[in-house]
Amino acid sequence: MNHFRNNLARFRLVTFDVTDTLLEYAVRPERHYAQVINSVLEPRIGRTLQEDHIAQSFGRCFRAMKQQYPNFGSGRKQTGQQELEDESWRWWWRTLVERVIVDAASSSDCHNVPVRLLSIIAEQLIDDYTYDGKRVCWRQRPGVDEFLRQLRTPQTDQTLGIVSNFDPRLNIILRNNGIGPAGEVVDFVVTSYDAGVEKPDPAIFETALRKANLLQPDRPEIRPQEALHIGNLCREDYNGARGAGWCALLVNVPANEKNRKLLETIPNEHVFAGMPELQQRLENAAPLEW
């Protein structure tokens, strides 16, 4: 008897978050940022930036950009503030990278980094994190391949999807990491950028439900209670999905104060260290309490 399938039998739709759920950074972002930044700055202006300064600047600048231009700048699409060829998400990341470099450089008493060098670095980092030709940016988290393979067995008829606070590069990143959209591994991808709202807004989960139902027009509509979302963030993934009427599970929850407080309100049986632990629990004969 396949207890894995039985434990998920009530769900006709299963969706996943991406960052730190299905994929993780292959190296710490500040390390790769430092390598790219210094490979440009050192031979041209004889200066280098430290990883810890870059990490601190990234945190500060990311929070500021997220507040000033939420959802990777998706709101700018309707404002006419950019040239047609300058997609908002690309402008957002380029601006972020340039701000990080200027901020980190000021911490290292390195002022007036030439604008053309800022642009070269930003474009290189955007390209790296999109295409990852050297395989140094992204990798699958442990157990993901086996978990998805179990869900994709011929005996199951679940629709699988992605619901992620991400920009439009996600399809390329997933395919590069063996999680092809459009039916190869998952059936569809919903990014916050394209949906126009970010998790935990219930509207992004409603968008995913509509997409799933469009994929099977000859079957009864999937209801919210027949949908399961698996992610790593208490507020965005667990509470967001539950707020839309879905079920939810957590894996690899970051150990910070915000999540520690939120975890006190979430049943322990819905929280797992990672995909291998979740798979092991689903293979147990005892039914999971939803």
What is the C-alpha radius of gyration, as a whole number of Å? 21 Å
Question: What is the chain-wise order of helices and strands?
Answer: HEEHHHHHEHEHEHHEHEHEH
The helix/strand class is alpha/beta
Strand fraction equals: 5-15%
Low-confidence stretches are none
| Oligomer description | single chain
Termini Cα gap: 21 Å
The average pLDDT value, as a whole number, equals 92
Helix content: 40-55%
Shape descriptor reads elongated
| Helix count, DSSP H or I runs of 4 or more residues | 13
Q: Strand order of the main beta sheet, please?
A: 5-4-1-6-7-8
Main sheet? Answer: 6 strands, parallel
Walkthrough of the structure:
The chain has helices at 3-7, 29-45, 51-68, 70-73, 88-107, 115-131, 144-151, 170-176, 192-195, 202-214, 234-243, 257-263, 275-282; strands spanning 13-16, 23-25, 138-140, 159-164, 188-191, 227-231, 247-251, 271-272. It is α/β, with parallel strands linked by helices and 290 residues long. A six-stranded parallel sheet has the order 5-4-1-6-7-8. Strands 2-3 form a two-stranded antiparallel ribbon. 36% of the residues are buried.
Throw out a few tags for this protein:
290 residues; alpha/beta; 6-stranded parallel sheet; two-stranded antiparallel sheet; 13 helices
Outline of the structure:
The protein is α/β, with parallel strands linked by helices and 290 residues long.
Secondary-structure map with pairings?
Blueprint: H1 3-7, E1 13-16, E2 23-25, H2 29-45, H3 51-68, H4 70-73, H5 88-107, H6 115-131, E3 138-140, H7 144-151, E4 159-164, H8 170-176, E5 188-191, H9 192-195, H10 202-214, E6 227-231, H11 234-243, E7 247-251, H12 257-263, E8 271-272, H13 275-282
Parallel strand pairs: 1-4, 1-6, 4-5, 6-7, 7-8
Antiparallel strand pairs: 2-3
Helix pairs in contact: 2-3, 2-6, 3-5, 5-6
